[in-house]
């Protein structure tokens, strides 16, 4: 069983709050960045990208402007993939995360020109259904590397309740079932995270001045909003820490996307040599 942690969009929260937890457990992850927004407000900076890469995390492409690749022309599609790759050329980018998790055969064909793998996301109906109560994952097959799908930890479960917002006991039960039921199977589980607004970002979204007849009500709402934000961040980090701890303890091969692709390629080559003997 392979497991991979991926982060989409390059939000500040990922670097400031979740990256230290990866370091705590000695885990690596794949960070998929939208190159047109790097260093903008609420996004990872170029200095932070370099730091992630220096500590052996994979830097991947999430296109240049985060457009739905299935709805644009061939020319724009090629521009999105090529521009992002060029801007990240210092980081040996090999894999792409399709914006919104969407791709089709045309998108795959263009992706093959520039990248060694492409990753989308499972829809709620694909990942978990009421009829079979089964989880669905990627097969450990090199042939599927442009049609990989991740479990979106913020948007997967029906009725659109983020997994990361479940009560802690339910969250742990779901993850335990995912990992322990499949630990000896030939599958590849990919998790993807977006994260939350940081407290600084939350404060910027609130009115800078509070005045008028509703001063007290507005002030209390501001205080409650910040308090609620702190609680959400603490809860999110606690769950992410627990997941990393389980991946670190269980006999699971936790790798980046590009490492998994290389592993599957080498395994396929080894099996081919064995069959020729």
Count up the domains: 1
Distance N to C terminus: 27 Å
Q: What is the beta-strand fraction?
A: 5-15%
Number of strands: 9
- Radius of gyration computed on alpha carbons: 20 Å
Shape descriptor? globular
Looking at CATH, which topology would you report? TIM Barrel
Oligomer: single chain
What is the class in the CATH system? Alpha Beta
Summarize the structure.
This protein is an alpha/beta fold and 277 residues long.
Helix/strand layout:
Layout: E1 2-9, H1 12-25, E2 30-33, H2 46-54, E3 58-61, H3 74-87, E4 95-97, H4 105-114, E5 117-121, H5 124-127, E6 138-139, E7 148-152, H6 168-182, E8 187-193, H7 199-205, H8 215-249, E9 253-254, H9 257-276
Parallel strand pairs: 1-2, 1-8, 1-9, 2-3, 4-5, 5-7, 7-8
Antiparallel strand pairs: 6-8
Helix pairs in contact: 1-8, 3-4, 6-8
Task: Report what the structure shows.
It is a single chain. With 277 residues, the protein is of the alpha/beta class. It has one domain: TIM Barrel (Alpha-Beta Barrel). The chain is 46% helix and 14% strand. The protein is built from 9 helices and 9 strands. It has helices at residues 12-25, 46-54, 74-87, 105-114, 124-127, 168-182, 199-205, 215-249, 257-276, and strands at residues 2-9, 30-33, 58-61, 95-97, 117-121, 138-139, 148-152, 187-193, 253-254. Strands 1, 2, 3, 4, 5, 6, 7, 8 and 9 form a 9-stranded mixed beta sheet that branches. Strand 4, helix 4 and strand 5 form a beta-alpha-beta unit. Helix 3 runs parallel beside helix 4 and helix 6 (168-182) runs parallel beside helix 8. The radius of gyration is 20 Å and the shape is globular. It starts with a strand and ends with a helix.
